[in-house]
């Protein structure tokens, strides 16, 4: 892979903004370099632009060196950056495989970058022959999501491997739900695939959606591009502190919650299949279920009237009559089941 050929020329040439804290590397007691307020208190200082303490902790947990890690204001920032780093507006394209996560399309639309769509197959695996015939030189970035949102399935490892070996552009593999899956994911394979970017997030398994922290794992050369293009202080001090304590003190709790959610997912699936309104519960490796219903509108509205909001996916390709329900706590899941059982 020749990285220079994949990156937009203006980004390749870009001289990044160098913040005061970027240039400082050493020991000091008096900081008069960044126009901060000396009376401000605990949060008067700008945060570490490279989030070094946080990355060190992530490196330990994930067994990936810090220079292979990018942290952003949610995965959404990483998605936005990938599109802007690699795709020239009105010239290059991304490729997505609906039904999938909506932010890839939004990221491309905002950047005025074209979108090549190749539907997944009926079993939500990749349609390799359509994919291969849809790719040309203008497709710079190919998005994969595994476990996929909203379908819940893992993409077959063999298909992911085939794509990584065949595709000449950047492969973004979104693993937002990997902690709920029976699969190790791909970050241990980064050395083998210089064109691979793996996205993860603290929003799902870690239960920290509110702090907005997303991760990208990739070769150091690719991470350097992210660091060049990102806003200098893209992850604030509150978020960095919160995630550090979570990783240091709450990891066992997180693992426990993930296993409870996985258990609840299976219990909910079994119970739903007994309801006559349910046509099909798709197998899930994530923390949600995709369910095909008789009368999905009525199900959605009845739940809504009882104060339960779920996701309507009836207009999504291959998801006809489907609703997506996040696996909640036992009480929340029981409420969903009660409402459905009262409907029949
Ligand atoms: C929830 C989700 C994310 C997480 O996005 P954040 O911006 O990190 O909260 C990323 N990808 C997919 C597919 C998701 O469903």
Report on this structure.
Helix 4 packs parallel to helix 10, helix 5 crosses helix 6 and helix 11 packs parallel to helix 13 (330-343). The N and C termini lie far apart (57 Å). The strands form 2 sheets. This protein has a 7-stranded mixed sheet with strand order 1-7-6-5-4-2-3, sandwiched between helices. Strands 8-9-11-10 form a 4-stranded antiparallel sheet. The chain has 344 residues and is of the alpha/beta class. The protein is globular. The chain has helices spanning 3-6, 9-13, 20-23, 52-62, 75-86, 103-110, 128-134, 157-166, 220-229, 237-249, 251-273, 296-305, 330-343; strands spanning 69-72, 93-96, 114-117, 139-145, 170-174, 196-201, 214-217, 278-281, 288-293, 311-312, 322-326. The mean pLDDT is 97. The protein has 13 helices and 11 strands. The longest helix has 23 residues, at 251-273. Bound molecules: pyridoxal-5'-phosphate. Pyridoxal-5'-phosphate binds at residues 74-76, 101, 145, 149, 174, 176, 201, 203-204, 209, 214.
Short structural summary:
By secondary structure, this protein is an alpha/beta fold. The chain is 38% helix and 15% strand.
Write the layout of secondary structure elements.
Blueprint: H1 3-6, H2 9-13, H3 20-23, H4 52-62, E1 69-72, H5 75-86, E2 93-96, H6 103-110, E3 114-117, H7 128-134, E4 139-145, H8 157-166, E5 170-174, E6 196-201, E7 214-217, H9 220-229, H10 237-249, H11 251-273, E8 278-281, E9 288-293, H12 296-305, E10 311-312, E11 322-326, H13 330-343
Parallel strand pairs: 2-3, 2-4, 4-5, 5-6
Antiparallel strand pairs: 1-7, 6-7, 8-9, 9-11, 10-11
The structure holds pyridoxal-5'-phosphate.
Residues 74-76, 101, 145, 149, 174, 176, 201, 203-204, 209, 214 line the site of pyridoxal-5'-phosphate.
